[in-house]
Inverse folding.
């Protein structure tokens, strides 16, 4: 009996471009996933990290992107068209609490 083992998938880190729209106060991430169907993409987003996994019969893309400013995940918009995953993530305001004190 001949074994019908699947050949291993090639694993790649997808190309990614991060830009910041200062007027709209958001990050725009463009992630290229050629040959991947929308239904085969898994995306996880939290305040500082975006994880993407895209997989077809022959290839797997894995990307993990740490952001230098926190975002608001629930207001993030995602679109996928013809191999381009576009993520628009609003940047969260950072407040720094300061306290004045007197030296004794």
């Amino acid at each position: 009996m001949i074994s019908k083992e699947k050949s291993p998938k090639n694993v790649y880190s997808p190309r990614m471009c991060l830009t910041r729209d200062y007027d709209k106060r958001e990050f725009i991430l463009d992630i290229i996933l050629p040959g991947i169907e929308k239904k085969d993409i898994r995306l996880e987003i939290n305040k500082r990290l975006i994880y993407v996994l895209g997989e077809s019969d022959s290839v797997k893309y894995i990307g993990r992107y740490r952001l230098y400013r926190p975002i608001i995940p629930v207001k993030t918009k995602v679109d996928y068209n013809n191999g381009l995953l576009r993520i628009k993530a609003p940047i969260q305001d950072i407040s720094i609490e300061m306290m004045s004190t007197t030296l004794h």
Notes: The chain has no helices and eight strands. The radius of gyration is 19 Å. Strands lie at 10-12, 16-21, 26-32, 41-45, 49-55, 59-66, 77-81, 84-90.
